[in-house]
Amino acid sequence: MIQDAKLFRVRKFDFHLRHLLVIGILAISFSISAMVRSQAADYGFQLNEFDPFFNYRATQYLLDNGLNAYVHWHDTMSWYPAGRDVFATAQVPLHVTDAVLFKIFGGGMSLYDFTIIFPVVFGSMTAVVIFALVRVLAGTSAGLFASLFFALSPPIIVRGTIGWFKSEPLGLFYGLLGVYLFLSGIKSENKKIAISKLVGGGFFLAIGFASWGGIEFFLLPLGIFFIALPFLRKDHNFLLWAVPLFVIVTMAISGGVFARPGPSFVFGIRGLVMIGPAILLVIIIFIQKYSKEQHRIRNSLLVMVALLIIGSAVLSATALGTVSFRYLNAMNPFLTSEDPLVDSVAEHATPTLAQNFSYFSVLMIFAGLGIWLVFRKKNGDQNASRFSLKNEMIVFALIIGIAGAYAGSTFSRLELLTATSIIILSSIGLAVLVTDIFKRENKPVQVVEPSKKGGSSRKETPVKKTIDLLGRVPKIAFVAVIVALLVVPALYPANANWIVMTKSPPTILNGGSNFAIATDDWPDAMNWIKNNTPANSVIASWWDYGYWIQTLGGRTTLADNATVDTNVIANIARILLSSPDKAWNMLNKAGANYVLVYVVGQKFTSSNQDLYILGGGGDESKKQWFMKIGGLDSSKYLQDDSFTPTDYFWHDTLLGQMFPFTPLTYYNPNTHNESPTYTTGYTAIYSKTIKYPANGTGPLRLVYSSPSLDRKDSGVFSGVLIYQVNPDYKPQANSSTSQGNSSSTLGGISSSTLQGNSSSTLGGISSSTSQGNSSTTIIKPATATGSGGNIAVIDTKFGEIKFKLFDNVAPKTTANFVKLANSGFYDGTVFHRIVPGFVIQGGDPNTIKGDRSTWGLGDAGYTIPPEFSTSLNFTKYMVGMARGSDPNSGSSQFFITLGDAPWLNDQYTLFGQVISGQNVVDQIASLKTSPNTNQPVDADSARVSKISIESSNSTAK
Predict the structure, then answer these.
(1) How far is Cα 540 from Cα 552, in angstroms, rounded to an integer?
(2) pLDDT digit string, tens, across residues 569-603
(3) What distance in Å separates the CA atoms of residue 91 and residue 561, rounded to the nearest whole number?
(4) Cα–Cα distance list, 240 to 187, 222, 635 (Å)
(5) N or C, which end of the chain is more exposed by having fewer CB within 10 Å?
(6) Strand pairing of 839-842 and 833-835?
(7) How many whole angstroms separate alpha carbon 740 and alpha carbon 577?
(8) Which residues of 305-389 form beta strands (DSSP E)?
(9) Which pLDDT tens digit goes with each residue over 842-882?
(10) Element of type H or E holding 483
């Protein structure tokens, strides 16, 4: 055939026309991928999203200061005041790869411009790597289909567009390259070549792990594949050294070269996912080697199942407790909403069915077809050895396909792994289908042959001939249908096809808003910061903007997208939603000199009056997450639509005062009716009002607002506002308690609205709030020495807990506690909430006989006012009164701290200190709890037999 025509020879390799065809298709795939990924350049040539700005700054630091300085770099501009250890917390291979390639290929380009095109190049090169990988699995045709699919796949493109100098494009390149080299290595018949490929595979896979944590997904399919190999291949002597070699190299590079993932990866559960199956492979091989032939499979399966059960039990009892929430969420998608900080990130959202269909559409059909074609029986088919479960490469394709489909069900960010898996399966399915349609077959047919005697008689003799059974027209129709199925989602619908959906403005130009706009609001604001603030200034903002402020503004920030201390982010949320006076105190305590907020909306003019509608992706749209992450009761700040701010938000929070808008009226766009007050279904209409002007005497002074906020015409505005923390401001007396909902929470502990009343879990300490008690009375004693008279004795299964009551610090609280204890109120109650490292909490009568769903909602039927101490702090083993959002909502529930909790100071009544039985407190704190409720699984182990009161004179300390 013409495709086999020889073109030229290089040493022992003959180049045929089909090789030129393969190169041509790969060049097309690369070009398509590069063009689609570069569409955002139409809006402006900028880095995209948030993380790329830090990665660019880190690469610049590496180039300017050298590798040794980079490895020891403690970045003081991040995570003020602690700073950031970059080598231990960043994607090091991303910075190193970019720096090395810039040195080689940078030419006259700036590093910024080079970094912008970096993801386009590597993302497009991955289309070639996926070809090589799928070619090893199922042949050249399948590989070419995979390359073309990869070049147009939306979930892969959207996380690798121009300017997307983040971990995914490089991590996926290294990860797929590592997997390809491993599969090619175990398929190689030459031992030397196999060794080099296996070593290279382990090296690049380890770099993939260090580049992007999502590449650790490959641990799962590889681990399952290791276990399957002894059942699929007979060359066990090869497997005995090949697989361990690959695993050893991978783990050595991952744990020995990089601090991230580092040794904890190798010796933790993640490393065990790869190391464990490799060990199991060796065990299975030896079981098969020393078992009788008829019992080999049975014995191997029994040992494998037994070891897997034992390993799972050990992991669930021990190791899983050390796994981060992110990895647990990857295993269980339903955990996302359990952590508001994780849930607030758009990339952590669980993909919808509609999103999956728009992303994959026809590829899902071909993927399913590929699975069916692999499982079908093909009696007498000469190609059966290639596409069957007896081929270990096809088995790996099935494993990675199924695992990838599950991975994408957790985070939207992981959908590019799902896309990779679906591309592998769909390309195999389409290749098998095309092979079946276009093959020529030998079939016996009846033909008429003339008689050898030359007479008129004839005889029919069956003769085997090669014929085209399907015919030319059906094949042409088949090609047309396949082309249409693949082209339609790339072109239709016009505004939501595969190509268009990957085109959006760089985030720095549209502020991450919902509008496809490109403005200079953010670049101008960052330039203003750089040129108009002192070099040592510290700027507070929501964590999304930290990297921009550091890189473009050149100033220190409190938090950014990589901040690991979630309490820092929660504290920023609480600052923004605290009363202005309290927020001023908190800002000064945090060391912030400036505060930045971002607001998006639309302006229109009516009767020569400028009017505004808010909402579109700025802080005005993120405020709901501020409340969740800060552990605050959103009902105080938001109307029943969970978006429109209440009057309290506008008048009594710092964020409400920083937004330069005031509600004018509420409008129903359907009925065209107006209302002076909020009504369900109505949209708030605002006027522009600067509440903290530059020459004002308030806690903040407006020093910058972006140009589009002052636009004269109608349209979208994208307002960046920068306020200086007024150093001359004097807060009003007792202003720290003027806000009724000012309590705080420990980072990582989510709030939960209580049923039947208005309270919520704030600061991690909850109790019910009685109706009709809306006033706030803060009692501050004249002296607070921490001395006391009575001692409370808590009898538990593990022994006694004794704590001293601070009668002179919190007289009303201690008197209430003594009264309840003497009445037997606490007898039989349970420490119903156990948060290791934070608190154990009890005192709810519902825990005696009530259903678990009511635990935490009970009280004594009345409330008591708070009694805050100015001198005592919540350190370890302190006893406090639990409450809800209203400071007056304390009643019967109390808690014992398990560590220092300064965020509870001046927020909760501290009325006692444990003086003996600290070990009992620790034993209760170590009880196994339900991950969703923090309730003890074994309630009786946390049950209080009795609480009695003793005189201090009768008990020694």
Answers:
(1) 15
(2) 999 999 999 999 999 999 999 999 999 999 999 99
(3) 13
(4) 14, 16, 62
(5) N
(6) antiparallel
(7) 11
(8) none
(9) 999 999 988 888 898 889 999 999 998 877 889 999 999 99
(10) helix 472-491
